[in-house]
Amino acid sequence: MGLFSFIKNAGEKVFGVGKAEAKEKTEAAANTKAAADELKTKEAGARKLEETIKDLKLEVEDLKIQIDDDMATVTGQAHDQSTKEKVVLVIGNTNGIASVDDQMSVEHAEPEAQFHTVIKGDTLGKIAKKYYGNAMKYPLIFDANKPMLTDPDKIYPGQVLRIPSLS
Q: Which InterPro entries match (predicted)?
C-alpha cells in the first residue's frame, strides 16, 4: 500500500484505446484551445484580483499575482505588515483559491497578526472573546479587516480574518 501518482489524461494517448487518428487530432486541438482559454481566464482572474487590491487602496509596489490551479502566488512590496496580510486575505478569500504563496516583502515591519477561519455561529464578539478575553474588543478585529469588511455583522463561514495583537 502507498501513494500512487498517475499522469492525468495520458492513458488514452499512450495506449491508443479505440480512437481514430482524425478524432484524436480534433480532440487535441479542442484541448489546446481549452487550455489556452483556461490560461486566459486565470490571467484575467489575477488581473481582477490586482485591480480589487488597488481599489481597496492597499499599497503594494510592483504587485503581481499568478494563479495556478487553486493556488495563487503574490509578489511585490507591501507598505506594512497589515497591508501584506490584507492582500493575502483578499486573494485567499476568493472563490476558487485554496492557498496563497505569499512572496511579498514589507517596507515597514510590524508584528504579524494571527488568522481565524470563521465557523458557523461565529460573531466578531465571540472571536474577540476567544483571542482577547473580551467580546467588546470586536471593533479591533473589524478595523483590522477593513476595507474587506464593511459591516461587523457580515462575516461568513470559511472566511479568514486578521486578528491583530493587542500590543
A: Bact_Kbp, BON_dom, LysM, LysM_dom_sf
Residue type for position 89? L
Closest by CA to 77, choosing from 100, 52, 106, is 106
Does 80 lie in the same domain as 32?
yes
> pLDDT, tens digit, for every residue of 9-52?
222 232 233 344 444 445 555 556 555 555 567 888 899 999 99
pTM (predicted TM-score)? 0.71
